[in-house]
Design goal:
Helices cover 29% and strands 26% of the residues. By secondary structure, it is an alpha/beta fold. The chain has two domains: 297 residues, 4-Layer Sandwich (Metallo-beta-lactamase, Chain A); 94 residues, Immunoglobulin-like. The protein binds zinc ion (ZN). Zinc ion binds next to helix 6.
């Protein structure tokens, strides 16, 4: 190629680059316009929050709902409810707290002495029929207070169907936006019924039953982690008290302690399904419970509850109840004494977390492979940026240890990122410290859409899982 031709090519290139810049600016300007409706959409929570409830319309909306969604009317005939409580009526002067077995997730139903109801969380999407059926079995038609502790699917997944199927008094949710389908369908159900969401935060006193003190004691501030944004409720009935913690972790626990609020409770819902990121020794000492409940599903992929927390509870002499072992668990308080529907879980110091032995053939097939592996491969995963900008590089660091706490080297690590429209997989191996570092560029991921990262570690025929997530800004 001769000189002149080169110059020409160079000129064309320059022109092309120049027009490309121009074009990008133009597209940017356009994008500025098109993202505007998206902003409005993402602020639906805020607009719902400011809306005043129009109760006369509620009935209309509700019947419209019923006719448009034919599946809602058939729910009660299909539900699989475990008849745990023989009596449906609330005896005079008794408070009942039901820790509903929703598998891996959380849901607590509280029924006051005069029959007022409060529902905290409603399990994952696949458990909504169970929750709706359970409430119907209790002959409940109205939920006076409905609380969605935080936007995680294992807590708010069933809220939409609860809102669709029952009269709802007041709804509390923390000020956290989430772009998941689950969250959006909860907002839609709220909108359809013209309900107003009250922001869940520390310092609120909930108006529920006369003589029963219900206080929201967290979140005390805005946290980066959604779990720490969990609404935490402390309930006192006479001499008895209950603490419902959502998935609040150590940061929120510390803030609850330093706020000086009364944490002492007879019954503690163990934070974050018994994950070691919650239930710090300090917090447990302050709460000083007689009973603790862990809401977990059999053989879940998270390794919940952790041996560390089970040991901590056992060392303190706390009686532990678990949905994966005891099914639905119901506490009854007469204001002086508390009785429990089930026998407590037996503490076992072995690595299987006290779960059934691996050779038990009645265990659900899905969980079998994972159950016996959890004790031998333990993963901790960390993400260095939970709110990365477009095109940023994010690094996930995974550490793998065995049952004795020694690092596991040469383990295969797979990270699957679930973007809005695609799944991207990264692979690596752990080094001699048991550490694998997986850096990746997020490209042009959709803003505000939380990308879940599923981590699988395999070594010597054993495998274990962990999760990370990030939300591009
Ligand atoms: Zn959870």
């Amino acid at each position: 190629m001769n000189q002149a031709c080169n110059v020409k090519v160079d000129l064309i290139e320059r022109f092309a680059r120049f027009s490309l810049i121009f074009l990008s600016i133009f597209i940017f300007a356009l994008a500025g316009c098109t993202t505007a409706p998206q902003d409005i959409k993402s602020s639906t929570g805020a607009s719902i929050e400011n809306r005043t409830p129009s109760s006369p319309d509620e009935q209309n909306v509700q019947s419209k709902e019923g006719s448009s969604k034919s599946d809602t009317s058939t729910i009660d005939t299909k539900v699989d409810v475990k008849p745990v409580v023989p009596e449906n009526k609330q005896p005079e002067g008794e408070l009942k707290v039901h820790f509903i077995d929703v598998g891996q997730g959380a849901s607590q139903l509280i029924i006051g002495p005069t029959g007022k109801t409060m529902l905290i969380d409603a399990g994952d999407n696949n458990m909504e029929k169970t929750v709706v059926g359970y409430l119907q079995y209790q002959k409940i038609s109205k939920i006076d207070i409905l609380i969605g502790t935080h936007p995680d699917a294992d807590h708010i997944g069933g809220l939409d169907k609860v809102i669709d199927n029952f009269d709802i008094g007041k709804i509390y949710m923390p000020k956290v936006q989430s772009n998941t389908k689950t969250f959006e369908s909860v907002l839609l159900s709220i909108q359809n019924k013209n309900l107003k969401v009250t922001t869940a935060k520390a310092g609120l006193t909930l108006d529920w039953e006369p003589g029963i003190d219900v206080k929201m004691i967290a979140p005390g501030k805005t946290y980066n982690d959604d779990n720490d944004m969990s609404a935490v409720v402390h309930l006192t009935f006479g001499q008895t008290s209950f603490l419902f913690t959502g998935d609040a972790e150590v940061k929120s626990e510390q803030d609850m302690i330093s706020s000086g609020v009364d944490l002492k409770s007879d019954v503690l819902l163990v934070g974050h399904h018994g994950s070691k990121s919650s239930t710090s020794q300090k917090f447990l000492d302050k709460v000083n419970p007689t009973y603790a409940v862990i809401q977990v599903g059999k053989g879940n992929n998270y390794g919940h509850p952790t041996q560390e927390i089970l040991k901590r509870l056992n060392d303190k002499g706390v009686k532990v109840y678990r949905n994966d072992e005891q099914g639905n668990i119901i506490f009854t308080s007469n204001g002086n004494d508390i009785t429990v529907s089930n026998n407590p879980s037996k503490y076992s110091a072995d690595v299987n977390n006290g779960q059934s032995p691996p050779n038990e053939d009645v265990a659900p097939a899905v969980s079998q492979s994972n159950k016996d592996d959890l004790g031998t491969l333990s993963i901790s995963a960390n993400i260095d940026n939970k709110a990365p900008a477009q095109n940023a590089t994010v690094t996930v660091t995974i550490k793998v240890i065995d049952g004795k706490g020694n690092p596991v080297s040469n383990a295969n690590v797979t990270l699957k990122l679930h973007y809005k429209s695609t799944v991207t997989t990264y692979e690596g191996k752990t080094n001699s410290d048991g550490v694998s570092t997986l850096p990746f560029k997020i490209g042009r991921a959709s803003k505000g859409f939380t990308v879940d990262g599923d981590i699988t570690v395999t070594f010597g025929g054993k495998s274990s899982n962990a999760k990370v997530s990030f939300t591009p800004q």
